[in-house]
Amino acid sequence: MDILKVRDAADVEQVVRAALANEQPLEIIGHGSKRQIGQPTATNAVLDLSALNAVTSYEPNELIITVGAGAPLADVLSLIDSKNQHFAFEPMNPAALLGSGSDAGTIGGMLAAGLAGPRRIKDGGARDHLLGAHAVSGFGDSFKTGGRVVKNVTGYDLCKLLSGSWGTLAVMTEVTIKVMPRPECQRTLVLRGLDDIEAVRAMTAALGSPFDVSGVAHVPASSLRASGGALAALGAPQTALTLFRLEGITASAEHRAVSLTKMLAAFGAAETVSDDLSAPLWQAVRDVSPLAAAGRLGAWPVWRIVCPPAAGGRFGQALAHETGGEVLYDWGGGLIWAALPPAPDAHAALVRQRVEAVGGHATLIRGSEAIRQSIDVFQPQQSGVAALARRVKNSFDPKHILNRGRMMREAAT
Amino acid sequence: MTIMMPAADEAVLQRKDGIVAALRQIVPGEGVISSAAEMLPYESDGLTAYRQPPMVVVLPDTTEQVSQVLRYCHDNGIKVVPRGSGTSLSGGALPLADAVLLGLGKFKRIREIDFENRAVVTEPGVTNLAISQAVAHAGFYYAPDPSSQIACSIGGNIAENSGGVHCLKYGMTTNNVLGCEIVLITGEILRIGGKTAESAGYDLMGIITGSEGLLGVVTEITVRILQKPETARALMIGFPEVEAAGECVAKVIGAGIIPGGMEMMDKPAIHAAEAFVHAGYPLDVEALLIVELDGPSVEVDELIKRVEAIALGCGSTTCQISTSEQERALFWAGRKAAFPAVGRISPDYLCMDGTIPRGQLPLVLRRMQEMSAKHNLRVANVFHAGDGNLHPLILYDANQPGEIERAEAFGADILKLCVEVGGVLTGEHGVGIEKRDLMPEMFSDIDLAQQQRLKCAFDTQGLLNPGKVFPTLHRCAELGRMHVHGGKLAFPELPRF
After folding, report:
1. B205 to chain A: which residues are within 8 Å by CB?
2. Which residues contact B314 (CB under 8 A, 6 or more apart)?
3. Residue A165 sits in a domain of what CATH number?
C-alpha cells in the first residue's frame, strides 16, 4: 500500500495528474475514520490529506470558518465552541458505530460523508453549510467553487455536489463552512412507553407545531436494552423513549417546553430534562449509540434509512418485526437506523424493496467488507437518474481515479 | 446592448415555419404563439434594458408535452430558453432570435399538500406566494420570500435559487426544496428526491437549484413548509453614520442573534422610500436598520431588548419598536417599496446584487460614493445587511445618450469591488446575461471549465439557455479532453508510510 501524504494543494494536483497518467486509482482519506463505509475501493494507492490541517481564517462575526480539508473535526469544533458557535447540522461521529476508535475524522471527511445529526430537521445538512471549496478534480485541475459569504448564487453550486459525494468527484483541499451561534440553552421533553407508530404521530405533531423543535427522536425499548450510556440510563426500567429538543434563549426554550408539553398531553405526561443532562442524550442519538459496535448488536449490519417522516413508524416497526432487528428513529421518523441480524445480503433485498415503496432510500453504513463487496451499499437509482449521476461523475473524474467504485458498484472505465 | 448574445443560426430561422408547424403538432391550439404582436410580452424579463423577440413561444401544459418539445428541439438542433413568470432581474429568461421560448405559465396547479410530512408538491408555474397562501390556514408557510413573490413562479425560484429578506434565518430556495421532476433536453423525464430530507446519491437537486435554466426544465417541485412563528416584531433604528449601522449588524450577529430579517437602507434610499410610502422613516439619519425578530413572544421581547441595547452602544439616534402588526408592516412598507420608490425619482435604474463580507460594508459604501462621482450617476442602497447582500440601485435615464452604458460600467465597478473585498457577483438575482461577462472576475478559466463540464453532463449540445451564465461557450468535446501530464506515481519528496 502506497500512502501519499500530501503537504498542500499543489501536491494534490501533482498526485492526481500522475495517477491519471498511470490510470492508477486513488483512495482519498483524511483520518480514514469512515473508510469502512461504502463499496470497497480497489486500489493500493492512498492520498492522505491529513497534513492539510490549517485553519486559514475564522471570522465569528461573519459566521464563517475556512480550513484545510484535513483539519481534525474535533479541533475545529473546539475552536468554534470557544466563540459559542457550532456547526448547526450537528455532524455525527460514526466511530463508535463503526468500531473504529473514537476519532471523529476530518472536516473533509465530514463534508464528503455529509452525515448530519438530529438538528438537520431544523437547520439542514452539511450541504446547507458548505459555502465554498477549493478542490482538485479527476482531470488533475485545481478549481474553486462558491465563495466566503453566506449568500451566493454565482455559477453552479458545486458545493452541493461535493457534499455527500464520498470523495468520488474531487479532492477538497480547503473549504469555507458556515458556523452558527450555539443556542444558549436546551430542554428535552421525554415521553415514555410509546410504540413506534404512536411515537411518530407525536413527533409529527411536534414538528408541525410552531414550537421550533430542533430534535425529535424515538428509541424503542428493545433497542435501549442493547445499550448503556445516557439513553439507557434515562430509559430504565426499559421503556421506550421519545425525545423532543427545544433550544434557544432560556426564556424561550422554557416557554416552548411548557407549550409543547400541553400539546403532547394526549401522548402522555412529558418530563423535562435540562442542559447538562439533555446534551448527552442527543449526542447518543446523533452517534446512534444503542447500535454501537462495542454493544450487544455490534456484529449486526447497520442501515441508514431516509424516508418521508410520517411513514417512518410503520416502516421501522415492520422492518424490525420481520427481521428481528432493532431500530432507532431520528428526524421525527425521517431517519431510521436499523441493526439487522446477520444475513448473507444484510437483508438488502428486503430493505430496498420496502424503502422504495415508501419513497425513501437506504445506505448500508456498517457491514463486513465481503457484504459491501457483494451488495449495493448505496441505494440503486432509477436508470435515468443513475445514468445522469454517471455523467456527472465523468464530468469531474472521467477516468474514475478518485475513490473508484465507492458509491457505484459498476465496472469502472 | 453591450452584452453580445450568441449569433442567430440563419439555417434555423429559415426553417421557422416548419418548426412552428411541428410544435403545433405537440402543443395544440393557443399553446404555440408565433405572431410578432403576440410574442411581444415575452421579449424581455425583469431586466428590461434587454429585449429580443423569440423565434416562437410554446406554452405546454403537461410534462409529456414539455418532453416532446425538448426532444424535438434536441433532435433538430434548436435552442430553448425556459421561462417562468419572467421576473428575473439578470436576464435569465431573455429570448434568443433563433430559440424556442418555453413558458411554464400553464403549470399552475398545486398537486398535493402533505402537512404530515410538511411538504407541498406543486407545478412550476405556481407563484411563490400562492404556496404560502395554500397552507396558511394550517399555520404553515413557504419560507423564501423574494420581493417579487406575488408574481414570480416557484419554477423560476428553483432556476435562480431565489432568496428574500428572511433567508438569513430560513435559508434560500436551495435550503427549502426537497425534490423535483425534471425534463432533460433529450426529453428524458427524471425524478429527483422526494418528501425526504435528503435524496439518494449525488445531490442533483442541489445542482439543479440555481442552474438558471441551463440544465433542464423542472415540471414538478416538492418544497418543505414551516410553521409560522408565533409572533414577529421589528425595530427601526437610525444611525448618524453608515459605519455605526454596519457595526451594529456585526454586533447583533456576534451576540448570537439571528434575526428573521435585518435590512439596511442608506440616505438616498430612505428619502425615496419615505416620499413614496410615508412610513415615518427618520430623514436626518445616514442609515436605517430594520431588524425583525420572530418566535414566541417571550423570545421576541427579550431579543428586542438585546438588539436595542446593542444599537444604542453603536450610537443609534432613533429607535422605534413595533407594537402591532400594522406598525411592523409599516416599517417594512418602505423597504419593500424601495425599488418602485427609486423608480419614482429616476426614469430608470439598474439593480445590482453583490454580496460582501458584512465587515466590509462601510468601505464598500464609501468606495461606491466615489464611483458615483466618477460615473456622474446617483446611487441608492438597500441592503440585506444580515447576510451581506447589497442591492445598489444605480439611477439613470435611458433616453440620455450614453447613460445606460455609464450605468452598466458603474454596476460592473461595484461588482468588481464586491469580489475584491472577498465577496461575490450575485447573492440572489443570478448571473444571467447581466453578470455573465464579469464571471472571470471571480472564476478562472479552469473554474469555469469545471462548471461547463457539468453542463455537458446534462446538455451535450448546449441547447438549453445558451448565452447565459458563461462568458465563453466551449464544445463539450473540448472540455472533456484530458491533458495527461505524464510522470509516474513516484513522489520521492512526499512522506510515505
Report:
1. 160
2. B239, B244, B245, B247, B248, B251
3. 3.30.465.10
